[in-house]
Amino acid sequence: MTAWRGWAGALLGVAATTGLFALFGELRPGFVWLGAVAMAPWLAAVDRAPSARRALALGTLLSVTFTALVFGWFPGAIAAYSHAPAWLCWGVFLLIAPVLELQFLTASWIRWYARRKVGTDSRLGWVPPLLTALVYVGTEWFTPKLFAETLGHGLYASEVLRQGADVAGAPGLTLGLLLVNECFVAVGQGLAARRGLKPVPLVLALVLAVVGFGYGAVRLGQVRSAVRSAPALTVGAVQANITNIEKRAAEEGTYEVVRDILDTHYAMSDALLRSGPLDLLVWPETVYPTTFGTPKSEDGGALDEEIRAWVAERGVPLVFGTYDLDGEREFNAAMFLGPSATGELAQAAYRKTMLFPLTEWVPDALDSPTLRAWMPWTGRWKRGPGPRMVDFRLNGGRVLKVAPLICYEALFPSYVAEEVRQGAELLLTLSNDSWFSGTPAPRLHLMHAAFRSIETRTAQVRVTNSGVSAFIDPAGTWTSEMEDNQRSSVVMRVPAAERLHSLAGAWGDWLGPVALALSVGLGVWLRRRSVSARAASA
Fold this sequence. Notes:
Catalyzes the phospholipid dependent N-acylation of the N-terminal cysteine of apolipoprotein, the last step in lipoprotein maturation. This protein is α/β, with parallel strands linked by helices. Helix content is 50%, strand content 16%.
């Protein structure tokens, strides 16, 4: 009976943390406070685990329930993309959940291990909570995570608290939240054991909250003071909401579909140009779904020249998503068309480097005819050369230093930080989230992009095929928003701003490896201390 009660309490802890995660992840201001207690039920359950096996079981279970509830939209999207059975997509997704969310397993095991080594020594009561938090953050850094999610992302809903991401990114916010959760666990355990209310954990939680709000308020004021009221750049963004291109091409013919895409974008862009002058026009990722500059057919060559002629006639620089060909290697690319120093039309391409596994790119070591036969939907793009700033000349001779990002690349802090360190003045993100339309994914993707602007304190123009397109300021606030599954176009006015430096912008995703190194050091120290204590008592 005692064992059953133990399991019932453990399962309740997993269920409570999973539910709190789901609410906290909705990014609503009223749910921000849930981040301070979301992990507490599960942490308390792990503390009651009588064995390492039970602790690992709780970590594994949370990885599965978290994946199912928070990312339950993903298997359906993959099923629609690959035409595989939904049950198979769900099965594979849940099977790999412990790998994708490995931080739950490592944190649960190290917590059990540390409490076993510390024993009843109250002087070392701080070791298990600190080691748990460090291992959690360190594990998230080195393990493969499809969506690069972390607990700190939930603080985006607080305009003040999210400013702390310019120190150590969203992982820094995660570390703070984990420590606050540990404080509430300690308070709850003290009350449950009838030892009274522990003041130290409450004071520590209060200090962490004051530091977070205080730093965020100061930093937010600095960001607002640095932004000028007059726009430095006027950008026209087109979100045509043309989806299911492959299906339409099979039914109508490729040329007819490309013709419709271009005509729609020409018309929507002309409407923007009639509303006033633009410094730059942006179309989304792969909007021109064939190679540009290296045509595969006579029709393709004619369409290439048509786009060049349209840009030259309108006199507005254009950035658009297309494919770029280098021999047999094809890349997902952003094409820049604008005036050169001599006044003629110049062309430059940025090639996407961070590709989504399988759907966009298959590693050479895994690629084979057998794999392609089993999964014909796998992508064939090649990886680009890495983060690269593009000098893009606008009308009047001004050179705009752009950090291009294509879709998935917006999830990687160090990648974006490297482009900004090269001197970029603007983050320019092209994306196509139509595969996930109608799910939380487009808004979650936008949230990730917003963190890149906070970390680097750089404004961002984000243009997608079907939403959510937006302008993101250096404080991470998005405006000029075009919703999911909506055809629209908008003029985004990018204000001038003084460059504000940040630790996350200078060092990228630095906290993960530091946390991992500290956790290894603390773990080794704890083990040696335990060995020495046993030797002394022998």
